[in-house]
Amino acid sequence: MVEKRPTKTSWARAVENMLAVILIFAGIAAAGGLIAALAGGFEGWAIVAGIAVIVLFGAGFLAIRDGARRRALETNTVVYAPDNTDQLFDVDPNTGERTPHRE
Description:
Order of helices and strands: HHEEE
Oligomer: single chain
Keywords: Membrane, Transmembrane, Transmembrane helix
Largest sheet: 3 strands, antiparallel
Structural class: mainly alpha
Protein name: UsfY protein
Strand content: 5-15%
Transmembrane segments: 20-39, 45-64
């Protein structure tokens, strides 16, 4: 049985991708704050900034990975059969099983 997943619109995907980029940039900014706190001798703020760097980079990485995984699951590859170029087949990415293409 084929599991139907709700499709997302392009703007929702763009928002998810932009969130991942914002998290990575915020992690870079937090790394700058960490360096400034270490240079200024503020040990407490350095700990806070270090935790922020780890959390922001981790969340950004997981958001990017989740988006890539979702895109890989949504693709439905259509290929030509090598023995007959007039007939299209859909190939299941998990099993490799071919089924005739229906539009």
